[in-house]
Design a protein that fits this description.
The complex is a heterodimer. By secondary structure, chain A is mainly alpha-helical. Chain A has helices at residues 3-7, 10-30, 34-59, 63-93. By secondary structure, chain B is mainly α. Chain B is 74% helix and 0% strand. Chain B starts with a helix and ends in a 6-residue tail after the last helix. The chains are: A mainly alpha, B mainly alpha. The interface between A and B is large, with 74 and 84 residues.
Chain lengths: 106, 165
Amino acid sequence: MLDIVRSVPIEYYLMYSSILFCIGVFGVLIRRNAIIVLMCIELMLNAVNLLLAAFSTYLGDAQGQIMVFFIMVVAAAEAAVGLGILVMVYRNTKSTDISLLDKLRW
Amino acid sequence: MTLAIFITLAILSVLTALMMVFAKNPVHSVLYLILTFFLIAAQYIMLNAQFLAVVHLIVYAGAIMVLFLFVLMLLNLNQDSEPQKSVSWKFSGAIAAGMLFVTFIGALKGASLQGPESPDPQVGLVKNLGHALFTDFVVPFEIAGILFLSAMVGAVLVGKRDIKL
């Protein structure tokens, strides 16, 4: 049995991941630079990944860690396409300020 | 001892994540996020998820963050030129994120989280995960390859200046 399963309750991981996720949400809400917003989304994905890995270890089941692996795959694809879109936005507006992009707002 | 290491790593990573959100210079933000990712990799090692720790370092710190830094340098955003949101907006953002946190804690408080008495500690090793990945999860694995191909084509297509069909 792993030392960490014995000494750290799973509730601590829940608390820790919730804090990291909420910091990510906070960053998305208050920043206007689109690159920082994308980075905050990566932080939120990481918080969820950590919690999945913790549950997987505490249950002794590999499926949670496989799920983390696929989330990483999707995150890498998302970052590549997102940054491509961002470069295109910068070419057209000469800025990465997301509050300029309000054409679709009601 | 393990609990002390866990709490130290957790506090440090929360602090670096906050620094990432609050840093004025985008390059500093990226560097703080890389630091956060290293601390999360240390958490994976503590959980004996060695495969995930290595993949996390390679994919996030090695590939995604380098891509972010590259775009920052390319767009010449490495100065604090970002217009700030108003104080009231920041305040309401903090309240919204805090409410979300309270909701999480409230929802998870009553959950019964009783795992097995002695879970298998070998589950995160490369051998076991590789076996699971290439037997039970081989179809999702191949689909992930197709997803990568389409993401690559999409990134190139989005980045082109004018597309003639």
